[in-house]
Design brief:
The protein is an alpha+beta fold. It has eight helices and nine strands. The strands form two sheets. It has a seven-stranded mixed beta barrel with strand order 1-2-6-9-8-7-5. The protein has a two-stranded antiparallel sheet with strand order 3-4. The chain is extended and about 65 Å long.
């Protein structure tokens, strides 16, 4: 990696020659401005406001604009004469616990590389001292024409330096917190804890920029002349939360589903739901009971009704057919009974007539 600054770490009376290397890189995709009419590149030219002529880089200096608009020229020679002890030195001023550094102060990150063989021993000494103390070093250094604040810590076997903003560069969060008193219930906190536990931890190396990848695919497709299909956008609800409890519960279930875990209540699905109710079809026993009620003549006729009902057809016609069959059977039985009575009565009358005839004849 190419170094951007050469100097030394001042560790008391120990001087450690080092090279400063960028620890991060920007993968953002940059676009150029073009003229929509013909696709021509739009460029910025530096023009003097007084004579409206374009000015080359060698003719451009720096100045400080006063409150009334007056320009006060400042040259590099003027700045070089200022006392800047950290011009080529990273001067350690203190060792503090890491939690005393406000993350809001974090700026750019750099790796410090030992510059040459003689620097290896003091470099290793400082690295091991930082490891054993579990502290970070607060230092001052100068870069790009200004003095800066930094924090040195150990990353693997390398000393890394984070640029820090000066404390007076951190703005107070005035007017940022929600207005009014907001009460959070224990149930809501419990669900928030459950959601945090469900989401769990993540391998930071697995995270990547989905949007940048989509832009790269878009550029590749347009460069090859392919048709670009619009991506499906997921509706997240626009940040409108109607029911906080319901939103938290749904978030927990969604998080479990995305991690392949069984959602709460997934086992025994459907419990507590209303079951479908279907009418119970009448059985032959019930049909015969209706047959009994319709033919209350004699015990024999009800027995015949039961027998005819058991031979009746399908449950689909059911009670009507069994009832009609029972009525017919009862009617037939009644007819036969009447015929027998009539026969017996007529037989008795004939016998009486024959006996009287015989008596007359013998007389």
């Amino acid at each position: 990696m190419r170094s951007i600054w050469n100097g030394a770490i001042s560790f008391g009376l120990v001087s450690i020659p080092i090279k400063l290397v960028n620890a991060t890189e920007n993968h953002s995709i940059h676009f150029r401005q073009i003229h929509l009419a013909d696709g021509g590149r739009i460029r910025y030219r530096k023009v003097c406001e007084l004579d409206e002529e374009e000015v080359q880089g060698g003719e451009i200096g720096k100045a400080y604009e006063d409150a009334d608009g007056t320009m006060i020229p400042i040259t590099d020679e003027d700045l070089a004469q200022l006392p800047l002890p950290t011009a080529k030195t990273i001067e350690i001023v203190a060792f503090v616990p890491a939690d005393q550094i406000d993350p809001l102060q974090m700026d750019a990150a750099y790796y410090l590389s030992a510059n040459g063989v003689p620097a290896a021993k003091p470099y290793t000494l400082l690295r091991e001292a930082l490891k054993r103390s579990n502290k970070v070093a607060v230092a001052k250094y100068a870069l790009r024409g200004r003095e800066r604040l930094g924090m040195l810590r150990v990353v693997d076997d390398v000393i890394a330096m984070h640029g820090l903003l000066w404390p007076d560069e951190i703005r107070a969060p005035e007017g940022v917190a929600p207005d009014g008193d907001v009460t959070v219930r224990d149930a809501e906190l419990d669900l928030a804890d459950a959601l945090m536990d469900t989401l769990g931890e993540v391998d930071m190396d697995s995270l990547h920029d989905d949007y940048r990848e989509a832009v790269e695919e878009l550029i590749a497709a347009k460069a090859s002349g392919e048709t670009v299909r619009p991506a499906e956008s997921g509706d997240t609800g626009g940040g409108k939360v109607i029911d906080l409890i319901a939103a938290l519960e749904n978030s927990v279930q969604a998080a479990k589903k995305s991690r392949g875990e069984a959602a709460d209540g997934a086992e025994g699905e459907g419990e507590g739901e209303m079951a479908d109710v279907h009418p119970i079809k009448k059985t032959s026993g019930k049909s015969s009971a209706s047959g009994k009620s319709s033919a209350q003549t004699t015990k024999k006729s009800s027995a015949a009704a039961k027998k005819s009902t058991s031979k009746s057809t399908p449950k689909s016609t059911g009670a009507k057919k069994s009832t009609s069959t029972t009525k017919k059977a009862a009617a037939k039985k009644t007819t036969k009974t009447a015929a027998k009575k009539q026969t017996s009565s007529s037989g008795g009358t004939g016998a009486k007539k024959t006996a009287s005839s015989r008596k007359r004849a013998s007389a």
